[in-house]
Specification:
The protein folds into two domains: 273 residues, Aldehyde Dehydrogenase, Chain A, domain 1 (3-Layer(aba) Sandwich), CATH 3.40.605; 191 residues, Aldehyde Dehydrogenase, Chain A, domain 2 (3-Layer(aba) Sandwich), CATH 3.40.309. Helices cover 40% and strands 20% of the residues. It is built from 16 helices and 21 strands. The strands form six sheets. Strands 14-15-16-13-12-18-19 form a seven-stranded mixed β-sheet, with helices on both faces. A five-stranded parallel β-sheet has the order 9-8-7-10-11, with helices on both faces. Strands 5-6-21 form a three-stranded antiparallel β-sheet, with no helix packed on it. Helix 3 packs across helix 7. The chain starts with a helix and ends with a strand.
Length: 497
Amino acid sequence: MRSRDDWAAAASQLSVRTGLYIDGRYQSAHAGESFECVNPATGAVIAHMARGQAADVDAAVASGVAAWKDRRWRGLAPRARMDVLQRFADLVQQHSQELALLETLDMGKPFSDVLGIDIPEVLKTIRYFAECIDKIEGAVTHTDASALHLILHEPLGVVGAITPWNYPMLMAMWKVAPILAAGNCVVLKPAEQAPLSCTRLAQLFVEAGGPPGVFNLVNGFGPEAGQALALHPDVIKLSFTGSTAVGKLLLGYAGQSNMKRVALETGGKSPQIFLNDLYDLDAAVDRAVGGIYDNAGQVCNAGSRLLVQRDIHDEFVRRFIARSALAYRAGDPLDPATTLGPLVSHAHQRNVLARIARGISEGAQLAMGGGSVGPLPGGAFVEPTLFTGATAGMSICREEVFGPVTAVTAFDTEDEAIALANDSDYGLAAAVWTSDLKKAHHFVAHLEAGVVWVNSFGDGDMTQPFGGFKQSGNSRDKHMMSLLSYTQSKSAWFSLG
């Protein structure tokens, strides 16, 4: 295993692309402006990125429209598009260390996690949707003999994608891969907090044989580049993962412009329910710990509400604290021994610490953590934090913290657990732990969430649609249904009489 010094030396040799990627080449922003990319582990400036604004979005969309109209991508045979995406995956794999280092420096995720978890999932995503391309099927309906009726699935056109910073490459590929597989062109705006790896991915697509103009990328801020993309009349659909507040803005922009389709995945406050008949308390605690502290809690479906039946509550909390102390070691993200990196920025660190303080002021009991840890000077770290005695009305149980913070609430009856779980504006994910199959089915039927895990948390593969109910959004990533959501149906009626 290579050491922290080895990876730091490799990081120092990285060539960072700072331009916008439009029509197959990097270029400066139209206004010549830039913004800083900051390493959240140290506070050091990594690079100055081109700051895309409305004029740059116009150029990126125009490039996509030109590629759409001359059919340089959608006009390729399905197997030809499949080959490009497979080569794209091959190049991502070949450049995996470079991409992982860029992501670690940019958003603070431990390098071993990016290389061992995120990159393999990125590859699975690209390859899955590549293999789906020639599996898109229409239909011939049963009509009168005097007619032939076909139902076809066609790509949409130029699609905009706005993606978050918590899993920069993976969340981008959850959108870009099916958009491209369906035959569309895409303009990606990655989060300004962590754009480096995505900026490189756009170039790798062209290196793989993707036609210029099919995959364009504009870095910049939401109120500038993001808003311009959402308002653009030539963008036929917008796909977004991020906060509920921004998702609502994007719906408004769609109405103000061309009534573009808007696919939203907008956060969660996921409950995990632990019944007293669960089969293995240690296994349940392990998954509860990982469900909130992995990626420093910066996960949209993080298990941030732990609902524990009262007669196992105290033992659950005791084991949770003990397990957390063993599992999470804050440190330099380039150190293979580090299991807890910083939050993405100092601004986000301040926000999370403020939410912890609010939880204390509302009466929740701080059982573990609650402060910032400082293994590196200038790092945006927050300790793994656990509240007990939390009630449904507290902000710590209602608002998405997006950090390593969770709250335990005791319950007595199964009906109470279901009511507590569903008492939320969100409905992204949920889990139930029980050894009773009948109870498991009952909870699955009654939990208001787009993904429900039984005796697990966070498990799944590319066959699992991912998305939520209520204010967690209206779309699904992964699965064939994601690909089909970037198509539109056409009815072709042939008169044979």
